[in-house]
Specification:
Chain lengths: ~120, ~120
Protein backbone atom coordinates (compact mmCIF):
# COMPACT_ATOMS: atom_id res chain seq x y z
CA UNK A 1 0.00 0.00 0.00
CA UNK A 2 2.80 2.44 0.87
CA UNK A 3 4.35 1.77 -2.55
CA UNK A 4 1.05 2.52 -4.22
CA UNK A 5 0.64 5.78 -2.26
CA UNK A 6 4.18 6.90 -3.12
CA UNK A 7 3.66 6.02 -6.76
CA UNK A 8 0.41 7.97 -6.95
CA UNK A 9 1.94 10.92 -5.07
CA UNK A 10 4.78 10.96 -7.62
CA UNK A 11 2.44 10.82 -10.61
CA UNK A 12 0.18 13.39 -8.99
CA UNK A 13 3.12 15.74 -8.49
CA UNK A 14 3.83 15.63 -12.23
CA UNK A 15 0.39 15.35 -13.81
CA UNK A 16 -2.13 16.34 -11.12
CA UNK A 17 -2.82 19.66 -12.85
CA UNK A 18 -4.39 17.76 -15.77
CA UNK A 19 -7.12 16.23 -13.59
CA UNK A 20 -10.47 17.82 -12.74
CA UNK A 21 -10.82 19.73 -9.47
CA UNK A 22 -12.90 16.95 -7.98
CA UNK A 23 -10.44 14.22 -8.98
CA UNK A 24 -7.60 16.26 -7.52
CA UNK A 25 -9.43 16.97 -4.29
CA UNK A 26 -10.38 13.30 -3.80
CA UNK A 27 -6.86 12.05 -4.51
CA UNK A 28 -5.38 14.63 -2.15
CA UNK A 29 -7.77 13.75 0.66
CA UNK A 30 -7.34 10.02 0.23
CA UNK A 31 -3.64 9.65 -0.57
CA UNK A 32 -2.03 12.74 0.87
CA UNK A 33 -4.50 13.51 3.67
CA UNK A 34 -5.22 9.88 4.48
CA UNK A 35 -9.01 10.41 4.64
CA UNK A 36 -11.21 7.31 4.32
CA UNK A 37 -13.68 6.83 1.45
CA UNK A 38 -16.50 7.40 3.97
CA UNK A 39 -15.04 10.74 5.08
CA UNK A 40 -14.58 11.93 1.50
CA UNK A 41 -18.09 10.73 0.60
CA UNK A 42 -19.49 12.82 3.44
CA UNK A 43 -17.51 15.89 2.42
CA UNK A 44 -18.76 15.66 -1.16
CA UNK A 45 -22.25 14.43 -0.26
CA UNK A 46 -21.92 11.43 -2.58
CA UNK A 47 -21.83 7.66 -2.09
CA UNK A 48 -18.67 5.77 -1.15
CA UNK A 49 -18.96 4.02 -4.48
CA UNK A 50 -18.89 7.39 -6.25
CA UNK A 51 -15.71 8.36 -4.37
CA UNK A 52 -14.20 5.00 -5.25
CA UNK A 53 -14.96 5.62 -8.93
CA UNK A 54 -13.53 9.15 -8.89
CA UNK A 55 -10.32 7.91 -7.27
CA UNK A 56 -10.02 5.04 -9.71
CA UNK A 57 -10.55 7.30 -12.69
CA UNK A 58 -8.01 9.80 -11.38
CA UNK A 59 -5.39 7.10 -10.81
CA UNK A 60 -6.09 5.70 -14.26
CA UNK A 61 -5.60 9.10 -15.90
CA UNK A 62 -2.33 9.70 -14.06
CA UNK A 63 -1.07 6.31 -15.21
CA UNK A 64 -2.15 7.05 -18.79
CA UNK A 65 -0.30 10.38 -18.82
CA UNK A 66 2.85 8.65 -17.63
CA UNK A 67 2.43 5.87 -20.20
CA UNK A 68 2.28 8.52 -22.93
CA UNK A 69 4.83 11.03 -21.67
CA UNK A 70 7.18 9.02 -19.45
CA UNK A 71 8.35 12.18 -17.69
CA UNK A 72 8.41 10.59 -14.22
CA UNK A 73 10.58 7.76 -15.54
CA UNK A 74 12.87 10.24 -17.28
CA UNK A 75 13.16 12.28 -14.09
CA UNK A 76 14.01 9.15 -12.10
CA UNK A 77 16.84 8.30 -14.47
CA UNK A 78 18.19 11.82 -14.07
CA UNK A 79 17.99 11.53 -10.29
CA UNK A 80 19.82 8.19 -10.39
CA UNK A 81 22.69 9.77 -12.36
CA UNK A 82 22.84 12.73 -9.96
CA UNK A 83 22.88 10.36 -6.98
CA UNK A 84 25.78 8.46 -8.56
CA UNK A 85 27.67 11.70 -9.18
CA UNK A 86 27.15 12.68 -5.53
CA UNK A 87 28.38 9.31 -4.31
CA UNK A 88 31.45 9.61 -6.49
CA UNK A 89 32.29 13.03 -5.05
CA UNK A 90 31.61 11.87 -1.49
CA UNK A 91 34.24 9.17 -2.04
CA UNK A 92 36.98 11.74 -2.74
CA UNK A 93 39.82 11.89 -0.21
CA UNK A 94 39.29 14.70 2.35
CA UNK A 95 41.68 17.21 0.75
CA UNK A 96 39.63 17.13 -2.45
CA UNK A 97 36.25 16.46 -0.84
CA UNK A 98 36.54 19.47 1.46
CA UNK A 99 37.58 22.01 -1.15
CA UNK A 100 34.96 24.78 -1.55
CA UNK A 101 34.41 23.87 -5.23
CA UNK A 102 33.47 20.29 -4.27
CA UNK A 103 31.37 21.39 -1.31
CA UNK A 104 29.42 23.78 -3.55
CA UNK A 105 28.86 21.12 -6.23
CA UNK A 106 27.65 18.65 -3.60
CA UNK A 107 25.30 21.23 -2.15
CA UNK A 108 23.73 21.84 -5.55
CA UNK A 109 23.35 18.11 -6.27
CA UNK A 110 21.96 17.54 -2.80
CA UNK A 111 19.19 20.07 -3.42
CA UNK A 112 18.22 18.25 -6.60
CA UNK A 113 17.96 14.80 -5.06
CA UNK A 114 16.44 15.67 -1.71
CA UNK A 115 13.36 17.56 -2.80
CA UNK B 1 12.16 32.57 -35.40
CA UNK B 2 14.95 30.28 -34.19
CA UNK B 3 13.88 30.97 -30.61
CA UNK B 4 10.34 30.01 -31.48
CA UNK B 5 11.46 26.78 -33.15
CA UNK B 6 13.65 25.83 -30.19
CA UNK B 7 10.84 26.61 -27.77
CA UNK B 8 8.35 24.50 -29.70
CA UNK B 9 10.86 21.67 -30.07
CA UNK B 10 11.37 21.71 -26.30
CA UNK B 11 7.65 21.69 -25.53
CA UNK B 12 7.11 19.04 -28.20
CA UNK B 13 9.77 16.86 -26.61
CA UNK B 14 7.89 16.93 -23.30
CA UNK B 15 4.24 17.01 -24.35
CA UNK B 16 4.10 15.95 -28.01
CA UNK B 17 2.62 12.57 -27.09
CA UNK B 18 -0.55 14.34 -25.93
CA UNK B 19 -1.29 15.77 -29.37
CA UNK B 20 -3.21 14.04 -32.15
CA UNK B 21 -1.27 12.17 -34.84
CA UNK B 22 -2.02 14.87 -37.38
CA UNK B 23 -0.91 17.69 -35.07
CA UNK B 24 2.28 15.82 -34.30
CA UNK B 25 3.03 15.07 -37.93
CA UNK B 26 2.45 18.69 -39.00
CA UNK B 27 4.60 20.10 -36.19
CA UNK B 28 7.36 17.64 -36.98
CA UNK B 29 7.35 18.44 -40.69
CA UNK B 30 7.21 22.19 -40.15
CA UNK B 31 9.48 22.73 -37.15
CA UNK B 32 11.79 19.74 -37.13
CA UNK B 33 11.78 18.88 -40.85
CA UNK B 34 11.57 22.49 -42.02
CA UNK B 35 8.81 21.80 -44.57
CA UNK B 36 6.79 24.77 -45.81
CA UNK B 37 3.04 25.08 -45.26
CA UNK B 38 2.55 24.41 -48.98
CA UNK B 39 4.54 21.16 -48.82
CA UNK B 40 2.63 19.94 -45.79
CA UNK B 41 -0.68 20.96 -47.40
CA UNK B 42 0.19 18.84 -50.42
CA UNK B 43 1.19 15.85 -48.30
CA UNK B 44 -2.09 15.95 -46.39
CA UNK B 45 -4.22 17.05 -49.36
CA UNK B 46 -5.61 20.02 -47.45
CA UNK B 47 -5.39 23.80 -47.84
CA UNK B 48 -2.49 25.85 -46.55
CA UNK B 49 -4.95 27.54 -44.22
CA UNK B 50 -5.90 24.15 -42.76
CA UNK B 51 -2.20 23.36 -42.12
CA UNK B 52 -1.79 26.77 -40.55
CA UNK B 53 -4.72 26.07 -38.22
CA UNK B 54 -3.45 22.61 -37.25
CA UNK B 55 -0.01 24.04 -36.44
CA UNK B 56 -1.50 26.88 -34.43
CA UNK B 57 -3.74 24.55 -32.46
CA UNK B 58 -0.84 22.17 -31.76
CA UNK B 59 1.38 25.01 -30.55
CA UNK B 60 -1.44 26.34 -28.40
CA UNK B 61 -1.98 22.93 -26.78
CA UNK B 62 1.73 22.52 -26.04
CA UNK B 63 1.78 25.96 -24.40
CA UNK B 64 -1.32 25.09 -22.37
CA UNK B 65 0.22 21.87 -21.08
CA UNK B 66 3.30 23.77 -19.98
CA UNK B 67 1.17 26.48 -18.35
CA UNK B 68 -0.58 23.77 -16.33
CA UNK B 69 2.29 21.41 -15.57
CA UNK B 70 5.42 23.58 -15.76
CA UNK B 71 7.60 20.51 -16.29
CA UNK B 72 9.82 22.15 -18.91
CA UNK B 73 10.47 25.07 -16.54
CA UNK B 74 11.20 22.66 -13.69
CA UNK B 75 13.59 20.71 -15.89
CA UNK B 76 15.37 23.91 -16.90
CA UNK B 77 15.93 24.85 -13.27
CA UNK B 78 17.39 21.40 -12.63
CA UNK B 79 19.69 21.76 -15.63
CA UNK B 80 20.84 25.18 -14.42
CA UNK B 81 21.81 23.69 -11.04
CA UNK B 82 23.63 20.79 -12.72
CA UNK B 83 25.49 23.21 -14.99
CA UNK B 84 26.57 25.21 -11.92
CA UNK B 85 27.74 22.06 -10.17
CA UNK B 86 29.77 21.13 -13.27
CA UNK B 87 31.34 24.58 -13.45
CA UNK B 88 32.29 24.37 -9.78
CA UNK B 89 34.01 21.02 -10.28
CA UNK B 90 35.75 22.21 -13.45
CA UNK B 91 37.26 25.02 -11.34
CA UNK B 92 39.01 22.56 -9.00
CA UNK B 93 42.81 22.59 -9.08
CA UNK B 94 44.21 19.82 -11.31
CA UNK B 95 45.10 17.39 -8.51
CA UNK B 96 41.46 17.32 -7.41
CA UNK B 97 39.92 17.85 -10.84
CA UNK B 98 41.77 14.90 -12.34
CA UNK B 99 40.97 12.36 -9.64
CA UNK B 100 38.88 9.47 -11.00
CA UNK B 101 36.00 10.30 -8.58
CA UNK B 102 35.76 13.83 -9.97
CA UNK B 103 36.15 12.69 -13.57
CA UNK B 104 33.32 10.17 -13.09
CA UNK B 105 31.04 12.75 -11.48
CA UNK B 106 31.71 15.22 -14.29
CA UNK B 107 31.00 12.55 -16.89
CA UNK B 108 27.62 11.80 -15.31
CA UNK B 109 26.68 15.49 -15.08
CA UNK B 110 27.85 16.06 -18.62
CA UNK B 111 25.49 13.39 -19.92
CA UNK B 112 22.59 15.10 -18.17
CA UNK B 113 23.22 18.56 -19.56
CA UNK B 114 24.30 17.65 -23.08
CA UNK B 115 21.35 15.61 -24.23
Amino acid sequence: MLDKVLRIAELYDFYGALLTDKQRRCLEMHYLGDDSLAEIAEEFQVSRQAVHDILRRGEQLLAEYEAKLGLVARHRLDLAAITQARASLEALPPESRNRPETVRALELLHQLTDR
